[in-house]
Design a protein that fits this description.
Blueprint (H helix, E strand, L loop, with lengths): L1 H14 L10 E8 L3 E8 L6 E15 L2 E9 L3 E3 L3 E7 L6 E7 L2 E11 L5 E6 L3 E7 L1
Antiparallel strand pairs: 1-2, 1-10, 2-3, 3-4, 3-5, 6-7, 7-8, 8-9, 8-10
Length: about 140
């Protein structure tokens, strides 16, 4: 009987979804001033105090490019540690020369874009700059 118990336990353990490993993510959405939206999620491993911000996305963020005013969009695909309730994202693209800086906590922060950024509805703007823009978010 014990010979069958171990394979059965392993089979059940392999079927348990990844959600059992991490607590349910908390989703946050918000707005950028003067225009635009942001969204991200905060995840925490089960039985751990460590939290991270992931899937940070933004759209409609105003930028001034070499050819005039546009709005930018983007997505940060890697998770970032949430330390003391705060997080910092600094990402650059060696392909386009774009630079993205996001600083804040779960409720508020700043975003800044520069370089050749992705603009809406599609395309890339050259020599773009957003300046430092504020954002606010709420859980929802």
């Amino acid at each position: 009987m014990k010979r069958f118990l171990l394979p059965a336990v392993l089979a059940v353990a392999l079927v348990v979804p990844a959600q059992a490993i991490a607590k349910k993510p908390r989703h946050y959405t918000g707005t950028v001033i003067p225009s635009g939206t942001i969204g991200f999620k905060v995840t925490q491993k089960k039985h751990s105090k460590k939290k991270s911000v992931s899937a940070f996305n933004f759209a409609g963020v105003p930028v001034t490019c070499a050819d005039g005013a546009h709005t930018a969009r983007g997505f940060v695909s890697f998770p970032v540690k949430l330390k003391g309730g705060k997080f910092n994202i600094v990402a650059t693209s060696s392909v386009t020369g774009a630079r993205l800086e996001i600083h804040g906590n779960r409720a508020a922060g700043t975003i800044q874009l520069s370089g050749n950024t992705a603009i809406e509805p599609s395309g890339t703007g050259s020599n773009c700059e957003s300046g430092v823009l504020s954002w606010t978010a709420h859980r929802g």
